[in-house]
What we know:
By secondary structure, chain A is an all-beta fold. Chain A has strands spanning 5-7, 10-13, 19-24, 31-37, 44-50, 53-56, 65-68, 75-79, 88-95, 105-106, 110-114. In chain A, a hairpin with a 6-residue loop joins strand 7 (65-68) and strand 8. The mean pLDDT of chain A is 92. Classes of the chains: A mainly beta, B mainly beta.
Amino acid sequence: xxxxxxxxxxxxxxxxxxxxxxxxxxxxxxxxxxxxxxxxxxxxxxxxxxxxxxxxxxxxxxxxxxxxxxxxxxxxxxxxxxxxxxxxxxxxxxxxxxxxxxxxxxxxxxxxxxx
Amino acid sequence: xxxxxxxxxxxxxxxxxxxxxxxxxxxxxxxxxxxxxxxxxxxxxxxxxxxxxxxxxxxxxxxxxxxxxxxxxxxxxxxxxxxxxxxxxxxxxxxxxxxxxxxxxxxxxxxxxxx
Lengths: 115, 115
């Protein structure tokens, strides 16, 4: 079974440019998460989807960040315009909803460097 | 507000040593606690999940304990090997987060096992 797929793996852009990240969760997983991981820190949740509905986006900086999961499968996270402080790893994860012991499965992440 | 702390931030040991990684959390109202492993440039892989009603979980050379009342967990690695070198993160799932709620992570302990 394929894991969580993310692309691109690396992205270098200049500040003020837009950037988008794509995530394909594990087949059958209804819940999808986007996390931000700064260097030397643990991941922090940006947004959580249940199917196509964003049920927790309280940590998403809505002035420049947006996300969508139109058909309840793949998801895209966008930053426009990017700032120097956005340099980090953006992790996507997915899980089923079978119970509280269900773990989240993480993708390899997209490493963003804003110059 | 739930906060998760891991000490030490980095640890270097010779091969074969037994070692303990520590995790503390400020709010005991959790469903479960998980330990993850993160290799450089990779996503997170779940190692062990301890439900709030449990005291410990074991998988191979790994043993994780949970003392919810004191807000502490430990990850014990027996007979460490160079392949154990990675960053280890603990995460809690707070009450009220549901089956698919967010995880709150510590900042991780980076382990180096020298041959």
